[in-house]
Amino acid sequence: MFWYLNSYRADSFLPTANTLDNIVEFSLFSSVATFCVVLITLLVVRINVNRLFLKKMTEVKDFVQDMAENSSELEQQDLDEIGVIYHSLENMKQNLDITHKSMQKLAYFDKLTGLPNRASLQQELVASLSSAKRKNESFAVIFIDLDNFKEVNDTLGHKVGDLLLIEASKRIKKQLRGSDYIVREQLGELESGESILARLAGDEFTVLVNGIEGPNGASKVAQRILDGLSNPFVFDQREVQLGASLGIAIYPQDGQEAEELLKHADMAMFEAKNGGKNSFEFFTKEMSALAFQRLTMESSIRKALDHQEFILHFHPRVSLEDEGIVGFEALIRWNSPELGFVVPSQFIPIAEESMLICEIGYWVIDNACQHIKYWKENGYPDIRISINLSSMQIYRGDTYNMLKTLITLHDIEGKNIEIEVTESHILEDEDRSIEFLNKLRTLGVTIALDDFGTGYSSLKYLQKLPIDVLKIDRSFIIDMETNDSTKQVLKSIFEIANNLHIITVASGIENRKQLDMVKEFKCNFVQGYYFSKPLPESEAFTYLTTNYSADKFVASSI
Fold this sequence. Notes:
Elements: H1 2-6, H2 17-68, H3 81-108, H4 118-135, E1 139-146, H5 149-156, H6 158-177, E2 182-183, E3 194-201, E4 204-210, H7 214-230, E5 233-235, E6 238-240, E7 244-251, H8 258-274, E8 280-282, H9 286-306, E9 310-319, E10 325-336, E11 340-342, H10 344-353, H11 357-377, E12 384-388, H12 391-395, H13 399-409, E13 417-422, H14 423-427, H15 430-441, E14 446-452, H16 460-464, E15 469-472, H17 474-480, H18 484-499, E16 503-506, H19 512-520, E17 525-526, H20 537-547
Parallel strand pairs: 2-3, 7-8, 10-12, 12-13, 13-14, 14-15, 15-16, 16-17
Antiparallel strand pairs: 1-4, 1-7, 3-4, 5-6, 9-10, 9-17, 10-11
Helix pairs in contact: 2-3, 5-6, 6-7, 11-13
C-alpha cells in the first residue's frame, strides 16, 4: 500500500500549462466584465444624475426668471442640496421684495409724515391731467405754506419742528376727510372727488383735489384747511400758533401742465402770505408779472449785498431838554445801478421771504457798530444808534451771538446800541420774544418798542415786555392835532410810560405845534423832519458835531 501511494508523482498535483491559461483567461474576462458592469452602472448613474441635476437647475433658472418678473412663490422642495438652493433663493426673493418696497417708499413717500412726496405728486398730477382732459373735468392744486414755521423751528429746535409738521399733516388730512372728498394714500389715478395730500419740502404741502366744481369747491376745501390749523399746537405744555397761507390753481384755466399748475399755486400762496397770512388766494394772470418782478428783485438784492450797494442813512434823535442830538436811527438805503433808488418797503418784504433779511441785518449792525466806534474815537462815547430787527432776526438762534461778537470786534459797549422791535413781531410768539429780548439786555443794549399804536396797542404790554424805550408811531402824532380823543389817549400813554420809567420817543414830528404838544406830555425825545431828514454818513457826523446834546442819552442810565 505504501508502494502504491508512492507510485504517484508529486508533479501530478501541479496545474498544467493549459490549466493556467484557462485561469488567466477566466480572470481577465471576469475583470473586464466587472469593469464593464461598473462602467455601465456609472454611466447610467451619471446620466440619471445629470438628468435630475439639469431638471433641478432648469427649475431654479425658471424660478429666478419668475422671481425677476415678480411671479408667485417657489413650491415646497426637499431639503437636499438643490432644495437648499431653492430655499436660499426664496429667502433672497423675500429680502429683495422688502428692499424694493422700502426703496419705493423712500422714493415716493415722505419719511417724516408718511405722505406722498413731490415725485408722487408729479405722477398724480400727470394722471389727473390725462383724466381731466378725457372726462372734461376740473381739478384744483392747493399749495400750503405754514406761517411762522421757520421761526418756531429755529427757536424750539428741529425735534419740535418735526412734531409740528406731523401734527399739521394730520390736521389737514382730517379736514379733507371731513369734506366731500376722499383722501387717497395710495398711488394711482384719482377718481372724481378723491384728493391726495403731499409734502413737498420743509413746511410746504400740496393738496390735489379731483372733480371740483370750480373756484367755489376749491375755496371750501381751503377754508376747511385753515380752520383745522387755526387752533394752537401744544408741545411740552407750550402753545404754538401757526396758521397757513394757501394758494389755489385750477385746471384748465390756470394751467395745462403739471409744473405750470404747481408754479401758479405757489405764486398765489405768496400773495396770500404777503396779504397778511392765514388766508388763501386764487391765482390770477397778474401774479405772473408780480412773481417775475419778485425774482428780479431778489436777484438784485443778492447782487447788492455782493457789490456793497447798500448804505446807511442816520435819522437824528433829539432831546426835548435842549433840542440837541442824543443819537440816531440807522436806516438802510439802496441806490441800485440797475433799478435806481429802491425804497425799503419795496425790497425788505422780498428780503424777508427769501431769508436774505438776515444777511442784510448783519450788514446793518456791522456798519452801525463801525460808525459808533468812529464817533466814539472822535469824542462822542455816549452816542447811541437805534437798529431795527425783523421777526426773522428775533427768532433766529444766532442773532444774540452775532450781536455779541460785533460789539466785541468793534470795541464798543452794549449801551451804544438800541434794538427796535415792533408789537406785531413780538406778539407772533410772546414768550419767545420776551426770552430773546431779556437775553439781549444782558449785553447792555437798550430795547425799544417801535411803531406803538399801529398794532394791538394794549397798554398792558408796557409793563409786561422787557422794554426801555417806547416809540410812538407818527400816525398818532398826525392825528392828535385834529382829534381830541387821540390827544387824550396819547396823554395817558405818556403818563403810564413815565410812571414805569420807560423813555418815550415821538416819531414823525414835522412842525412846531406837534413838538409843543408832545413837550406838554413830557415826552423825552423826538424824531422827524422838523429837525432833520435822515442823513448820509458824512452829513450825520457834521450834524452831530454841531448839535450834540449836553443832556446826552437819558436811556443809557436805565
